[in-house]
Amino acid sequence: MKKRVLLVAIYLSLGILICVYVAKLFFPTWVIGVATAPNIVMVGQYIDDNLWANILWSCAISFVVWYLYLCACLKKWHLNWKHILAVLGAISIFTICEHFYPILCLPIDLTLLIVIPTVFNAKMKDVGLIFPIHILNQFLTLQIRGIGIGFEHVNPTVLSILVIDVFIWLTLLYLFQNYKSIKGECNGKIRDTTHGKQVDNASASKGNS
Hints:
Elements lengths: L1 H25 L1 H8 L2 H12 L1 H24 L6 H20 L4 H15 L4 H17 L15 H7 L1 H45 L1
Helix pairs in contact: 1-2, 1-9, 2-8, 3-4, 4-5, 4-7, 4-9, 5-6, 6-7, 7-9
């Protein structure tokens, strides 16, 4: 049952992602109009003008991104306190660099995205799948039909809407990785049950002989 629910969630996320890409490719003006609605711009302007609001918003968005990313790499539904401490540490390092050493932001971010999952024993094939998808998607999301062009400054709420496909991709990877994990567990149980039956049958045959 859990596998079926997961599959439905995966297909639903995939459908939403396709809709977002169709909108960006064929209706870029509409997408920009939605993202720059007066209320959204007003909230973003307040966040922009208030240092602490800006920091809190950035940290909250980063936490969501990191949470989904690390869960996907580790094939876990939830992170434990050690994982969360590592995520908070990564966000703190990035925030400090963003405000004082912006030139270091990109190399530090890329390094942490590989190092932290590896420290927690994520399989390299999982990191090798999720890391490039995540980075490529971040790079391309504002390049589609030049949606990011023409903004001298994009405030935080407008940017979050324009890059919503980044969050959908991470959700999709999170669901897909956990689906693979559940499927692997089910297959393992089936193999163990089959092996157990074979052993019992072999024992019974020896007893009969």
